[in-house]
Here is the input.
Amino acid sequence: MNAYSIHYTLSFCEPQAHYMEVQMIIKNLKNSTSKSIDVKMPVWTPGSYLVREYSRHVESFQVSNVNKKQKVSFQKTNKNTWRIFNDGKDLCISYRLYGFEKTVRTNFFDEDHAFVSPASTFLYIDGHKNLSSTIEVIPAPNWTKISTGLPTVKNQPNIFFAKDVDTLIDSPIEIGNQATWTFEVENTLHEFAMVGGGNYNTEELTKDVSKIIRTTNKIWPENPNERYVFITHHYKSAYGGLEHCNSTVLATSRNGYNKPSTYQKYLGLVAHEYFHLWCVKRLRPKELGPFDYDKENYSKALWVMEGFTSYYDNLILRRAGILNETEYLSLLSRDFNAVYLRPGVKVQSAEMSSFDTWIKHYRPDENTINSQVSYYNKGALLACALDLKIITETNGGKRLDQVLREAYMYFYMNLNRGFELEELQKLAQEITGVDLSEIFNAASLCEELDYISLFQKVGYSLKDHNKESQKTSLGIDLRTCEQRLYVKSVKRDSAAWKNGLNVHDEIIAINEERVDTTENGINSFVEECPAGEVLHILIAREGRIRQIDIQPQKDTQPKYKITPIKNRTSEQARLGDIWLSL
Here is the structure.
């Protein structure tokens, strides 16, 4: 194998126009017997399972000889591959990248800062993903800081080292004037990089995140990082995150830190992404690494990786003392409602939701609620079921923590490979001595588990408070635009579904009365409609007026709430305390 030397340079001549210049120097080509090399750009980024076609933002692609600066011929062979006809001389590849998309997985450049998403930035040599590289950053004149999980090259603070392509693609870079500070927790140095201001309290945030880190560390046998970076982008309104082996990128509301619910949501996001540095970045399904950056990497196990993480994020806040019991149970109840408010829960299993994420999860439409279930929320419910099952069947001797710890040691530390779902189930049953097949099987089915009994055994009640309600509904969601009222979605098997009310229909009047342009305006007609009577709804569809007659039917949407059982036994209380122990 050829010991090519690779050096990247990132620079910014026109950041205000949202451009970054990239240079890739490849040396030691004289040792190659091939007359050409292929360089590629990933079409997706790990952790965000959608083909995003990053190469569409590449401009002014050029190749030259490093020493003589002579142009070298090349040919673009497909959407993300350039074939360079090598004459044995060292090469300099240069191109410009446009970046103006505010997400945690795409490039963004402006006069204030640059966020470099590696998958949408760096080329790599096809067939040589094991090669190390150095990355030199030349900030714009008014920028003073660089934040990344990559280590620096000795005595060169603006040059960073990546041991291979997977590490390079997994290490985002923030460049600008972000507020930064560091703190150490249990021998791991942590850095915060806060972009775009924010009304956070540095001392309080450090204290709370330290609690999250310590609590998470207790679950796993080791913290694999000597250094870890939290990069947070602040916007007027935003929420999201993306995990990496050595860092995470978060998005949140600039002025939300003094609002308890928004702040708790941000801390939950921190806990979620930090948990991922074990669960998915190291303990992972076989399909998720080593990666094929050219195409989809299908897996039926995202309900484990994202679902377990979605279960543990708020549970960690509870164990850390950040959430009280009522707050935690309220958030867990939301997961149940998020799953069962969607008719799609009867159509798509957690495994198929995982497998089809490449074509469905990131491309929601008006029928998503009827055809899909989220592997995040549904996976969290399955993780909860596993945890409660293990706790009760082992008389409180074990819980899901032990399964994750042993799986991490076995698959990652010992075998250094991903797992098959069947292997994970087998290991979980060996560790706990509990038959978990019903819950693992439920991930591939649309039938439901008996969650009510599981919660009862640990002293809690799971109840649908809407079950006895006599409320009626049309089964639609609405939106307003230019003071007009439109149907946004129609739920499967609802009154509107059965009678042909469509998405995008403009609702004008009901029973010959003009409706208010609010959902409450519709609700008043529905709620006051006597049982068995019909509403005459005047709509506009594609510019044509028509009337649709609908008889409202019972609202079957659940409203789950988890609460402590008032007269629980001492055994229920003991097991419940183990489940939600601090």
